[in-house]
Design a protein that fits this description.
Length: 195
Amino acid sequence: MRTKKVLVAMAGALALPLVWTGVAWGHGYTTAPPSRAYNCSIGAVGDCGDIQYEPQSTEGPKGFPEAGPADGQICSAGISRFAQLDDMRGGTWPTSQLTSGGTYTFKWTLTAAHATTSFRYFVTKDGWDPTAPLTRAQLDLTPFLTVPYNGQQPPTSVAHTGTLPSGKSGRHMIVGVWDIADTGNAFYQCADVTF
């Protein structure tokens, strides 16, 4: 009887990797422009909580903007332990200088790549309030740049060159969304910029 229990336990242990092969282990964050998560991880911003140790972990439901994280929780991907990313801090997050209508190369660091549908980039509307929690009403809900991957797995360093929205000035936020192909999740990165 004891031998049978041992064999059952061993079979279960051997089968476990097969069960887990369908789980998304992809994780990533944007370094250009630097996201809030990345700024926390390099110490450019303090009082960040757990995100400083895992900037790649802002994974939430995909389907943005129709679905995904709730308004006011977009930057944290709806994960309460990363809520510091949703705190607008009175509009004091550090910004990157961008040129409206110019060409820009967005960069992601993927700590674990995964089959990908696309990378998409959204920007806040003119007149948005940088001191209020980020909502869909504050964003242009049509991405200004979409990079399709059609289920392919990207490399661990990803760069997408595209044209920035024209006519923008002042402080804005860019939301990068990495849509995973074979799970119900996406990764969300918020970057504060000045045009």
